[in-house]
Design brief:
The protein has 12 helices and 16 strands. Helix 2 packs antiparallel against helix 3 and helix 3 packs antiparallel against helix 4. The radius of gyration is 45 Å and the shape is rod-shaped.
Length: 430
């Protein structure tokens, strides 16, 4: 189709020789009535064409404006985009119907508009898919930086809280803050039985021959004295040592007496084991599952202070023993533990598969913790399998943190395996 050239003066100059009209005295052309009518129609067509082109330019400009707006809001406003496209289609179709002469141009503009919208949608759809994927990953796993920030602004109170927040399975030293505001570091076991175990204490015997001397904090550093009831380390709020040295010295942190825990875990780890090898070097591991600690105040300090106090000469042998809690084994078993009790007399005294608290012997001395075993009914020699005491024994032969685990005066029938003597008892809460 030939493009129409809308120029009034060109039409006058190109008029045919028989066109009606006259020439003025000044040389200007004066059209007759018919010529004037045709000229008016052409002027109207020219104006319409100009308006159509102006409308097309405005539409293209609107598309560019929408393009930049869609970059930020396409995903949310996709329905509005569809409506806008339909309106543009309707408008352009009206222009097409009104002026067939420009239909080809309008068809071209229409195709270009549709292509632009389609390309815009495709590009943004891909971008928003990427954004959605990144947001999904962000929700599923917090970044290291956000975890650090959260720990600074809202420090966890236990290893179990860290485990719930971050789902980590990495054992090691972590920073905690208890309910009283005390900030401290301790070792967390994040891998055993679901993880979240907080190391609160370790019982370490630094010298089996040093009966109730320096280092015997879990019994007495003040000698064998019936009137002192030991140093009170099982009940009091004293702290000692560092988590990294928990296999080389006694250890006790704030969580021992401030945490409100449900269960207990015990590890037996060789003396002087470096912190990174605590877990892998432990040869006995077991934990309770009943939530028993809740009924005793949530920690050992409450259990010994308010329920089963550590005092000498006040309780009946065996009859006043504290609770024996069944255990679930994580490393080792009942049979393996009993092989570490080679003395036949000790085997007669205990049943494996428990943790027992505050047992009383013949001499009415109290022993705090029996790891992995309970005393059989009527048996009254807990100084051999149990640890921690009130720091009293009539003859002084088994006063100390590990009491009579190495008892020698009656040959080997009361002794324990060297592995149990030369290792530390690590205590965890959860």
């Amino acid at each position: 189709m030939r493009a129409v050239k809308y120029n009034v003066y060109d039409e006058v100059e190109d008029r045919p020789s028989n066109q009606d009209g006259v020439v003025s005295v000044t040389g200007g052309y004066q059209p007759s009535g018919e010529a004037e009518r045709r000229l008016s129609e052409k002027c109207v067509k020219g104006v319409v064409a100009v308006l159509l082109l102006a409308a097309a330019v405005a539409v293209v400009a609107a598309i560019f404006t929408l393009h930049f707006q869609f970059k930020g809001t396409w995903y949310q406003d996709s329905a509005e985009v569809d409506i806008a496209v339909r309106k543009l289609n309707d408008t352009l179709m009206q222009f097409k119907d009104a002026n067939d002469e420009n239909s080809a141009k309008i068809d071209i503009v229409l195709r270009e508009l549709k292509d632009s919208i389609r390309q815009l949608n495709d590009v943004n759809y891909g971008k928003f898919q990427d954004i959605e994927e990144n947001l999904r990953h962000l929700k599923e796993s917090k970044s290291k930086e956000s975890m650090i920030l959260e720990s600074i602004t809202n420090p966890p109170s236990s290893c179990n809280e860290i485990n719930r927040r971050n789902g980590t399975d990495k054992n090691g030293i972590y920073k905690l803050q208890d309910a009283e505001g005390n900030v401290f570091h301790t070792y967390c076991d994040m891998s055993t039985a679901g993880g979240g175990w907080t190391l609160v204490a370790s019982v370490h015997e630094n010298n089996m021959k040093g009966r109730c001397t320096d280092g015997d904090r879990w019994s007495s550093e003040q000698g064998n004295n019936v009137n002192l009831n030991g140093d009170g380390f099982w009940e009091n709020r004293a702290i000692h040592g560092s988590p990294a040295s928990a296999t080389s010295d006694d250890y006790k942190n704030y969580a021992y007496f401030t945490m409100n825990a449900s269960d207990v875990m015990i590890w037996q780890v060789p003396n002087d084991t470096p912190m990174p090898r605590f877990e892998s070097s432990s040869f006995l591991k077991y934990h309770t599952t009943s939530g028993f600690l809740k009924q005793y105040g949530g920690n050992f300090a409450s259990l010994f202070t308010n329920h089963y106090s550590m005092k000498a000469k006040q309780y009946k042998p065996n009859a006043d023993n504290g609770p024996a809690i069944p255990i679930s084994w994580d490393r080792g078993n009942n049979e393996e533990l009993l092989t570490m009790y080679p003395g036949s007399r000790v085997l007669e005294e205990v049943d494996a598969g428990y943790i027992q608290f505050r047992t009383i012997n013949w001499e009415q001395s109290a022993y705090a913790l029996c790891p992995g075993v309970k005393m059989k009914s009527g048996k009254k020699n807990p100084e051999h399998p149990c640890v921690g005491s009130t720091g009293y024994n009539p003859d002084g032969n088994y006063c100390g943190d590990f009491a009579a685990r190495d008892f020698e005066t009656a040959a080997a029938e009361w002794q324990l395996d060297e592995r149990l003597i030369s290792s530390v008892v690590m205590i965890f809460y959860r």
